[in-house]
Design goal:
By secondary structure, the protein is α/β, with parallel strands linked by helices.
């Protein structure tokens, strides 16, 4: 018997192993198996196919062991992975690495131990070798990481190789299991305590001598009846009964209770009073009925609703409907920050039926959610599940998927850029739903041009919500001409007098403010006034950004950092000036301008963990923060009832970015962040600062006019062969030698031109030509939509394989991005 397995490596295709006779009864598609790859490394692989066909002249290695009683990956998932491999031109191993929680992927760790025949001879060892041997004599075995720490060396392989060659040490590969269930202490009544006569004798005794113990016992009985379960968590019981562990121990000694350890969920959204969905408004009810009707005819529906129109309540009603059918639902959100607020809303309605899955959760939490979704197929009395998550949630092992909701479907965060697979979760979710015969709802106030185009072309069904919930009017937008304000001396640092006056009025009324600046850090550029020298990253072709709080100049691409220089490296001048501004500088200046108010910042630097995300969002929601300064994180679907003013500090930075999607992204970001203003009890205001107030995109934002923007943008897209009229595939060549990157890119462009003709553009230099010491060159392919996607990908893959197999290109890294964002 043979198996084809997928290894978590960036290698094309599957690999064949034979199954020892003693394991053949256990082998199944989708199970994890341990296999050796290469001379020593051991990996967890997923079984893709099983065959008893003899592989002539192939010397296969055996499967070492099988890890699972039941498959952890479904057959449908394997089909889905294969679609991703074919469509996004990646490898099965890259899909596996992206899909499977890392705690389910065991990988061997190299450990060192002394050779059993080695006889101590310290005179033949160098100082470092002696330290290592001495440590092995004490510890018996060490990992390579331990050795590196012990010797204070990053490169320890020369020392290890020297000892290996002289048979001083041996190397072994050891597998480590990373997933560990969490256990908690539970309280259960003993068999003796369940006897009615025993309890009748015990109760009066406790009432006379130990009333606190009786109170704890009665609370246990009440909670047991309410929760309908035999055992109750010790911490929960003591909290509800307002009792102590010493009182509990007394009842244990009397034989009333026994304590036991049980595995518990790391995510627990138990809610004693699960609320039904809110009653929909007339507009919402109409949209809800239209969505339901559309699902009868067409599986994909675009819900185009203006900001604050109440799309989330429609989502909740649809999720409730799927839940009552005992089905699974997937609710995708683009930003992890957004999940904090949405989770708080959903948990009130779905309690423990709600599962949360995204990359900020640790390995243990992700495995538990994976197993719950997987186990759904084996439960006889299915109660349904609602899974909310960021883009990686599309890889969960669904078996009974009924509904997929993609909220803020236009958002570029749904696109994975690095590493491969470079997939778009929105598009992939549509395909997943199609495979599982599930419905899809794409929701947005500013749909992507592709989705809106598909809706107008009748590929999708479109439902619109044109009015805000509660008859709230759309925010009033004011365009502020920064150039004119500078002439009139009406600018205070980066704030116009008009914006500051609007902020003072809002704060005086006890309202909150959001300020949007799409650049983090303190200042994007530090420049010598005398000679214009700018500190640059040593690894990337970008200037270093000043982060004043940490006292560093940082590269946002590779993480390189230095202490800010006090003088110019080129001319020695001490006159170094900061140019531009980021969120950190805005925050600092606001603290000076409004010292009596609380200012906070929401960006990548302040919200690195799920806890910091949650704290910032909760503090702003509770009114503990008056002004929130942020990057794109503040634009995405957040709902704060006291926000009356939104300020966009530098619209030109968005509008002038050199990318064909710049205008689309600018309109979406400005319209989305504008939608944060005036959502409940206040009429909202939006102030947009710009050097070019006559820009057409700003006029569309001024009037909240998506349809006119769409028609305007489509003219250029059609004229220059861009989506939605054409498909794009971007090939990036990377090499540490610039001349080699240029040469390889030209060869690639020539070979692709032989296949696709004038559809191939380039090679060109990207906006940033070097990242992490790799020089980048790009070749773009523009393909008409009428062409067969399958045939195009097959021809392209063949050309790319030919390019990569040439000996001259062995050191060249090639990345392929299908449908780049």
């Amino acid at each position: 018997m043979f198996v084809e397995v997928i290894l978590p490596l960036s290698l094309p295709g599957t690999f064949t192993y034979h199954v020892p006779v003693e394991l053949q009864d256990q082998i199944m598609t989708g199970k994890r198996v341990i296999v050796q790859f290469g001379k020593q490394k051991i990996y967890t692989a997923i079984v893709k196919n099983i065959s008893d066909v003899s592989f002539v002249n192939i010397d296969t290695k055996p499967v070492i062991s099988i890890l699972d009683d039941l498959p952890v990956v479904t057959n449908l998932q394997l089909d889905y992975w294969q679609w991703m491999v074919d469509y996004y031109l990646c490898t099965p191993g890259e899909i596996l690495a992206a899909a499977l929680p890392s705690a389910l992927r065991l990988q061997s760790e190299t450990t060192l131990l002394l050779h059993p025949e080695y006889k101590t001879n310290s005179s033949a060892l160098s100082e470092r070798e002696f330290y290592l041997v001495e440590a092995l004599e004490k510890e018996k075995q060490l990992t390579v990481a331990n050795v590196s720490k012990l010797l204070s060396l990053k490169q320890v392989m020369p020392v290890i190789k020297s000892l290996l060659l002289r048979n001083v040490i041996l190397i072994e590969e050891e597998l480590t299991e990373r997933y560990k269930p969490r256990y908690a202490t539970f309280v259960r009544m003993t068999a003796m305590a369940k006897d009615e006569q025993y309890m009748q004798e015990l109760m009066p005794s406790l009432e006379r001598k130990a009333p606190k113990q009786l109170d704890l016992l009665l609370n246990f009985i009440r909670l047991q009846q309410d929760d309908d379960r035999e055992s109750i968590a010790q911490t929960y019981l003591l909290k509800k009964a307002k009792s102590s562990s010493s009182i509990l121990q007394s009842l244990v000694k009397k034989g009333v209770f026994e304590l036991l350890n049980e595995a518990v969920d790391r995510q627990n959204f138990t809610n004693e009073e699960v609320q039904p969905p809110f009653v929909l408004s007339a507009d919402q009810q109409q949209a809800y009925l239209e969505v339901q009707g559309a699902f009868e005819e067409q599986k994909v529906v675009l819900l185009h609703g203006v900001t604050s129109s109440g799309k989330t309540e429609i989502y909740i009603h649809l999720l409730q409907e799927a839940l009552l059918k005992g089905k699974q639902s997937l609710y995708l959100v683009p930003e992890i920050a957004l999940t904090t607020q949405v989770i708080n809303r959903l948990r009130k309605h779905f309690g423990n039926k709600l599962l949360v899955y995204h990359s900020r959760f640790n390995d243990q939490e992700r495995v538990e959610v994976w197993n719950k979704v997987l186990d759904h197929q084996f439960k006889a009395n299915n109660e349904g599940q609602v899974i909310i998550g960021a883009r990686s949630a599309i890889f969960l092992p669904f078996s009974n998927l009924d509904l997929v909701i993609v909220d803020e479907e236009h958002d570029s965060s749904y696109k994975q850029s690095e590493p491969a697979p470079r997939y778009n979760a929105r598009d992939s979710a549509v395909l997943l739903a199609s495979m599982m015969k599930a419905n899809v709802l794409l929701g947005s106030a500013t749909p992507s041009l592709e989705s809106y185009y598909n809706a107008l072309a009748k590929k999708y069904f479109m439902v619109t919500l044109e009015r805000r919930f509660g008859e709230m009017i759309m925010p009033e937008v004011t365009i502020i001409d920064v150039r004119d304000a500078l002439k009139r001396k009406q600018m205070q640092s980066h704030f116009s007098t008009k914006l500051l006056d609007m902020m003072k009025s809002a704060l005086a009324a006890g309202e909150q403010i959001i300020l949007f600046q799409n650049r983090r850090g303190f200042a994007p550029v530090l420049e010598c006034k005398n000679c214009s020298w700018v500190p640059h990253c040593i690894n990337c072709d970008v200037s270093l950004t000043l982060h004043k709080q940490h006292g560093q100049l940082r590269c946002h691409y590779c993480g390189y950092s230095i202490i800010p220089p006090t003088s110019c490296n080129a001319c020695g001048s001490n006159d170094l000036r900061m140019k531009g501004f980021g969120t950190e500088k805005v925050e600092e200046e606001l603290q000076v301008l409004f010292p009596e108010h609380q200012i906070a910042r929401l960006d990548h630097d302040t919200a690195k963990s799920k806890r910091s995300f949650h704290r910032l969002i909760t503090d702003f929601e509770n009114g503990d923060i008056d002004v929130l300064v942020g990057t794109q994180m503040v634009t995405k679907g957040l709902d704060f009832e006291k926000v009356s003013l939104v300020g966009i500090l530098n619209a030109d930075q968005l509008l002038n970015y050199p990318d064909f999607r710049a205008h689309e992204r600018s309109f979406q970001l400005m319209e989305q962040v504008s939608g944060r203003a005036g959502r409940k009890h206040t009429s909202g205001k939006v102030a947009i600062q710009t050097y070019n107030p006559s820009n057409a995109i700003l006029k569309f934002v001024l009037n909240h006019d998506f349809k006119s923007f769409y028609n305007h943008e489509l003219i250029d897209r059609n004229k220059f062969d861009y989506p939605p009229y054409f498909r794009l595939i971007e090939c990036t060549v990377k090499h540490k030698d610039e001349a080699e990157a240029d040469r390889a890119a030209k060869v690639l462009a020539r070979e692709l031109t032989e296949v696709f003709g004038k559809r191939v553009l380039g090679p060109t230099h990207p906006n940033i030509g070097r990242i992490r010491n790799y020089y980048l060159r790009q070749v773009m392919i523009k393909l008409e939509r009428k062409l067969s996607v399958k045939q195009v990908k097959q021809r392209l893959q063949k050309a790319l394989d030919f390019f990569q197999k040439e000996p001259a290109h062995r050191s060249v890294i090639l990345h392929v991005d299908v449908d780049p964002q």
